[in-house]
Structure formats: structure tokens, C-alpha cells
Amino acid sequence: MRRSAWLAIGIPLLGLDGCSQKSPVPAAAMVAAVTKTGTSPAFTPPPEQQMPDGPLGDVIRRGRDIFTDTPTHAKAYVGNGLSCSNCHLDAGRLAHSAPLWGAYGMYPQYRKKTGEVNTFGERLQGCFLYSMNGKAPALDSAEIVALETYSWWLAKGAPVGVKIVGAGYPKLANPSLPADYVRGEKVYEKDCALCHGNDGQGQQVAGRNVFPPLWGPQSFNWGAGMHQLGNAAGFIKANMPLSRGGTLSDQDAWDVAMFMDAHERPQDPRYTGNLADTRRKFHDTPDSLYGTKINGHLLGEPAAQTQGRR
Amino acid sequence: MSRIGSLRIAWCLAVAAALPITGARASDAATIARQGNGKGAAPCLACHGMDGGGQSASGNPRLAGLDAGYLRKQLDDFTSGTRASPVMGATAGALGDDERQALATYYSKLPVPPTLTKPVASVPAAGAELATRGRWSKQVPGCVQCHGPGGVGVGASFPPLAGQPAAYIEAQLKAWQRGTRRNDPLQLMQHLSGALSDQDIHDVAAWFVAQPVITGGAAP
Question: Measured between alpha carbons, how far is residue B88 from residues A181, B8, B58, B134 in Å?
């Protein structure tokens, strides 16, 4: 089970600006610690009971419904069974789970991913294209407007243009050992397979996800943020297993993130027709395993993508 | 042991004693369910009902339609003590390996009794938020996030909550709190039950009782 040489070298380069958490700490304690040392104010979104009545409230609620049950409420734009709230827990409210209130005020923003300044609506379009493996609703579509309105409401009172404590996913310190597939597989079997299944395909009731697939044709595609090891490790550390966030060690989180992201998934929609070229253009970082060989399989290989969409 | 608990045990044993015990074949689950196994395992129907639908008044759970793997594990755990219950500890301990498996399979295949599939008139609002959304300030997910929409149950590890007596759901949440039940994978229930008040437990149990029981993967 050989990793590519670049991986062993690359992983320690990640998370240079990460926090100094090294041992397993319950998420609540972690949040408190970060809040104490953070330079920005923590933020609490308004309680759901305070959603206004009337037409504005209706659009806010529609945004929440799209967010928590995307296949039902934005059917035309999703290519898998995921919902936004699979990775943004508590309907986009939870700190350290990329909450909407932490993202809203950070746009417009120059993004390396697109090479231009994107509005929040354009950022939401990216979620549909990559994480939902679907197609982007128009900026003035009811779906984007509703999601934007819901996000705005959650962010009411939050500072604009300031990274708030709890925004995004935590940046973990470098793992002591380079992230490892075999160790990750053991973590997966012990702490993840209960819900996500031995085959990573989640568990469904009546064709609907209760636990989301982590790879394969019904998961996020190679362009999604969660395919990046740093994002995945941070999310996993803070939030997984569900309700037991903060219980995995940083090393376990890195290892199991690597295990998850070393599996095949739907093609990057930016695929140029050439894997090496696509990697060079969009994945030229040790944070991405796309276009690299793991266990003899070239990840992102077009032949593996024939079943990318159901 | 509470007074109600003692009465419940006395009732089950009384019913068991009143039923004829014949030499049941080891793995004839229907016979064991009806008559016991003649080796100390009480008849299941004494507490779980003729149709496996449970008894809401006494808080005895429904078994009909539950996942076979889940049922098997519970029988094993009653014996090992990770799920403490005087009645079930004695009963499961008197069942052989093949008998446990046969009973788990038997009950998993029983249809949900029609009395449980009737629509409930009204769903109480109090437990809805905890059941569907959780309380993330205390790392508590919504119950349905693991137990499935409406508490329909998911696989062998997340049993149905819909169609279970409120008294049963309440008793289990309190057992997780006390540690008398500790057979949960990844200590998920032991952990999150600690964040719940008695009122939370009451409300959330009442919410699940009002959910329709869906079987066989029908649309939620």
C-alpha cells in the first residue's frame, strides 16, 4: 500500500496557520478555547422561532427547506442525494461546520478557485455544481434567492468582511505522521462505518439518505471542497461521529479524511479531457488526491467516471 | 427497581406461569414466542403481545418488524448485562444461540400490527424540535438524523422509535442516562441522553408515539 511520494512530503505542509490543538478535546471545549484566543467575536445566529412572518419569512423558510432537504426542494439542480445540511450541520447554524452566518459576510471575495471575485450567490452556485454534483441555478432563480435570504437572516448582526470565530471548518495542525490510507481505513471501520456503511455508501430509507454516501456516484464530485484533505479533516475532527465531535485525535481525522478522499467519485465538471492537465489546472496541491495513484488506482481516471451520474 | 417495574415483572411471570410449557423444539420461534422454551425462557407474547406489537400501558416494546440483527444483539446484550433487565436477562439467558437467532428472525418478519399503523390524530408540538432538529448547543442531533424520518428505524443499529410505547422510549432514555443500558455503538446514546431533561424525554417520547409507523421501506 504505497502512497505517492508527494503525499508524504505534502501533507505536513498543510495547515501551516492551523490552531495548536493536538490532543483529542471535546468540541465544546475546543470551541471555548478558540473563542478565548480568537481575535474576532463569536456569533450566535437568531433562533429559528424569530423568523419573521410574511413574504420575507416565507423566502427565509424556503431557503432553510432547500438547505435541509435539497433533493426535494431543489430537485432540478442536484445530481446526487445529498443535502447542504450534510456538511453544514444544524441547518447551517453550527459553528466549526462552515455555518452560513460565517460565510455570508465574507462575500464578495476573490477566490483562487475561480480566479475572480465571486458574490455569495456565485459561491452558492459552486455548491450545486460540485458538492451536489448538479447544475447551478441562475443567480436570480428562486432557489439561489431563497438560500441567500436564509443566509442573510442567519448572519443578521454579524460583522461584514471579518472572519468570525467558528466560520468554516477548523484548520488542524499538521499531523505528526503523514496521512495514511491504511490507518484511515481502521479509523473508518471503528468510527464511521456504523452510519456510512462498510462501503461508504451511507444508509437510505425509501431511497432517501439518512446517512450520506462519502464516495461513489451518489457523493460529491472531484471539484467539491470536501475532497480536499484539509477541509475533510477539519470537518471530521469537529463534527464526527455525529454528536461525538472532538473525540477523534487530529491524526485519526487526517488519516480517515485521506481514506475517504482516496476513493473514486464523480468527475470534476472542469475536466479538460486530460487528467494530468486537469490536475495541473485545478488540483495542483497536496490537499487534493485527484489525478494521483492510490493503491494502483488513478483517481479521477475517466474510465472510473462512466457511472458518475445516476 | 421501581414499583411499576416490579409489578410489570410480576405480571409477566404470572402470565408465563399460566401458559402451558411443552417441549418446544429448540429453534421453533413461533412456539417459543407462544409457550416459552421449557428451559426457563418465558413466552415472549406474555409481555410483547400476541402479535409482537408490545403493550403500551406497561411500556413493553414492539418487536414486530424490527431488524433481525438489532433484535439478536439485544438478546445477546441482555445476557452479557450491557443492557440490564431482570426479566429479559433471565429469559435471554435461557435461550440457546439458535433460539435467539430464530426469534430475532421470526419477529423481524412479523407484520406491524394494524393497531399501530393507524394514523394518529394530532402530533404534539413540544418534542418536535428535539426530535427533528436536535439541540446542537449540547451536541445533540435530532433523533431522526439517525433513526430515520419519523423514527422509522435505519438498519441494525438504529431501531424504530415510531410504534414504540412512550413509556418504553422514556425508560430507555433514562436507562442510557443511568448506565443500566450501555450497549450502544460508539456510546452515542449514553452520551447524548445526558443532555436531556426529564421534560425533554417526556416530550420527545410523545412526539414519536404520534408518528405513523411505516414498514418495509415505504415512503416517509
Answer: 43, 12, 15, 31
